[in-house]
Predict the structure.
Amino acid sequence: MASEHIAQDDVLQSLIDASARARKQCLNLLDLAEQSGVAGFGSLPHDVQLELANQQKHFNSSLAVLRGLNRNAYLYIRKSKLATAEARQEIDKLHLQLQNLYYEEKHLRGETESCKSYDHKYQQLPLIPVEEFLHIHPELADADEKSLMLARIDHELKEREALEQQRQELLKKKQKLIADNKKRKEDLADLDKRLTDFIDVGIQALSTIVQNADTSIRPEGQSKKSLRSMPEILKRKLVHRDVARLKMTQTQFR
């Protein structure tokens, strides 16, 4: 796999390139050592010794560069991991907020459906038909549904307030009539009592007069029994007349 396919970052790419160079130098150094044979370093020709020393020097330099790049890459990777962790936390936080928004949206949709299907009290009001209301208030013909409903409810409120005021006035009149009838009944009862007392006194007075007349005046040719019976008839007529007058008076008062 090519190095550019392993990492796209410059720091890591430089580390990979330095590692590749050090590896190449190490392989060259090993090839040169194999070509020199098993003889000791001191027995090799001078030019071979110089070449091996030069190759080893380049290799050590490459190793030093590689160590520095490796350290930089390690620090860079650790920093990248921290940045990645922070980014992951931010993403998790945003994802949690998104889930909360989904739940809130679901809850609000449910509440909206509940509100739409709720049996509101204003829908049960015996409002007048829309056509009749618009005939009374033609200026609201272009109003929206909400404004029209509010206007209808306000109209119904005013109508009920007017009817309630009329009911209160009629109730006051009723109470006044009841009080007047009660007073008239009391007056009639008092009059009835007074008339009864008057009749009783009249009957007693009439009986006294008849008894006195019976003893003082006695027509000739008429027996004592017939003279006593005539005042009784007269007395009954007088009583019936007074009773009839009392009934007429009560009827007039009613």
